[in-house]
């Protein structure tokens, strides 16, 4: 097994991501589509294609903002979830990057953990169609579990429903508390658009 190519691909991807990090806050977007376009910076597509060819892997293509918006709207309607909430989760989970992988292994736009994805019947968590379908279905289940309390559902999306139940509210984890605040702030912004 030759891992040299895989290591080179990972190193190149890390360098690519590090170059995209901008310490200055972005100006508020006038619409969800503008925020998506800004976050996506589709100029990375040639680099990803070259990286995939070098490593021999299948790197999914950049997902156009209009496609993400259509997926959000369709799944929000199917699962009866406010589209502004789905958009807020995507914005905070992956920054609209369908190829995102967290340090814990969560994947895709809505950062599905492998166990959660498998439990929802997902075969490819990086596939935007499957990912948004499953993530929206999952948040619907959390909203039902917590009787429509968006704050608790969002906390459970981050920390797990057992942690929310254990603490009887948002768990006292700094990451989760910050996550809930950021998602709800994004939600209000998308709701106002």
Give a verbal description of the structure.
With 193 residues, the protein is mainly alpha-helical. It has a single domain (4-192), classed as Lysozyme. The chain contains ten helices and no strands. α2 crosses α4 (65-79) and α5 (83-93) packs across α10. The longest helix has 19 residues, at 174-192. Mean pLDDT is 81; it is low at 20-30 and 40-57.
Q: How many separate structural domains?
A: 1
Give me the CATH architecture, please. Orthogonal Bundle
Radius of gyration: 17 Å
Strand content: under 5%
Sheet/helix structural class: mainly alpha
What does the largest sheet look like? none
Determine the mean pLDDT.
81
Helix content: 55-70%
**Element-level helix/strand string:** HHHHHHHHHH
The CA-CA distance between the termini, in Å, is: 51 Å
| CATH class category label | Mainly Alpha
Question: Can you tell me the CATH topology?
Answer: Lysozyme
Shape, please? Answer: globular
Number of helices: 10
Number of beta strands = 0
Low-confidence stretches: 20-30, 40-57
């Amino acid at each position: 097994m030759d891992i040299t190519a895989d290591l080179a691909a990972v190193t190149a991807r890390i360098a690519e991501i590090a170059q995209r990090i901008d310490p200055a806050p972005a100006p508020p977007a006038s619409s969800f589509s503008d925020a998506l376009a800004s976050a996506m910076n589709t100029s990375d597509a040639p680099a990803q294609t070259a990286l995939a060819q070098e490593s021999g892997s299948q790197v999914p293509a950049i997902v156009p903002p209009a496609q993400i918006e259509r997926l959000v709207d369709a799944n929000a309607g199917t699962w009866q979830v406010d589209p502004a909430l789905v958009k807020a989760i995507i914005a905070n989970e992956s920054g609209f990057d369908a190829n995102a992988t967290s340090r814990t292994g969560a994947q895709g736009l809505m950062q599905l953990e492998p166990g959660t994805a498998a439990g929802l019947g997902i075969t490819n968590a990086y596939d935007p169609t499957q990912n948004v379908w499953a993530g929206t279905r999952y948040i619907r289940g959390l909203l039902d579990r917590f009787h429509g309390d968006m704050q608790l559902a969002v906390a459970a999306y981050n920390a797990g429903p057992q942690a929310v139940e254990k603490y009887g509210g948002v768990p006292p984890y700094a990451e989760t508390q910050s996550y809930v605040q950021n998602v709800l702030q994004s939600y209000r912004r998308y709701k106002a658009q």
